[in-house]
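Batch manifest, entry 17 of 40.
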Amino acid sequence: MDVITVIIMFVLFLLAMIFVFSSALLTPYIGKKNLITVVVLGLVVGIVAGAFLAAPIVEDLPDFTRTLVEESVAGTDVVELELSTNGNITEIINNISSIEGVEKVDYNGITFKIDEPFSTDTDKVRFLSFLNGTNANITDIDELSNDTYYVYMEKDCDPQGVLDSIYYTFGQQTYTHLKYTSMQANATVKANNITNIISAIGENDAVVLNITGPTEDMINQINKYLPNQLNAVIFSGVLGVLVALAGFFVDSIFNLINNFRKKRNTSSDRERIKRKVVPGTENRQRRSRKVNKDSIDIFDDSFDDSPKQTIGSNKRFKQLTVEDLKEKTIKNSKQESDKKTKKGFSLNPFKKSSKNDAEMVEKDTMKTSKTNKRKAPHVRPKRK
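Output type: structure tokens
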């Protein structure tokens, strides 16, 4: 599955979830009593979308993760190969070595298997000694089982020559028939291009048996946590139910959020008093005043802990006694008597007496009363 197909299927999955959410938003019209219907709709749509859209994407996740890991990991991996002995082995190895990204190809020997064990040990010894002498590149022959043997060869020798020696020995020295031959090799390749290298190796009569290295280790570690197709379907169904519930209760959720914001933005009485500003003085520049160290802000928390709010903290405070009250009353009476004497006598000749003042006040009141009297309107008599 290519990248475009994955993107299209992912978009379709999102559209399915949007359909469930929009259907749940219709609760003001269909009524909130249909909660079960909305939940069932989300479950069905989620399962269908998971089976036809999410499961194929999950199936291709290992290949997708391999591509990402190959681009991020540096180093080399070792690819174990099994080469076909039906063709020219030397030519196959040379073709694999020429692939871009392949650093080297190592091989140790050839395995062959016979159809039945040797009848006697003498026949086996004679056969192995003859095979060892047919080619100088053969270093040793190891018996893996009664019918399987492994022929070791020199490093970087011609493997096709060793294979021809095996065929020649079976045709000359024994009546035992050769069942099959095989050869394995290890190719050291660059980790950031291993996918293309493996596809190219498959075109050269070779089979990949195993891959070891940092790339495969990381891919195997990631694949442990990837879900399978069944888990993808179950997850999609649960997601559809959650989306349906979210659309069903979205109005209530927004109302709770708005109420919480309103409560959070409301200010206390102290803050409202601090923020009061006389109209017309918003843009007026404030004079810089030196802050007195002993001053206290009554709206600050420090005022509650300050000793200056209590009377006992004032050193000049003196408790009043009965004698102090008597002295205060005597002083007040003297001041009132002095004021009366000053009003009765005056050395100013131009100042009028109190009697004249009273007469003037009476005259003014008479004038105002006369002026305030309503005059009778002049009415023209009607003719008879």
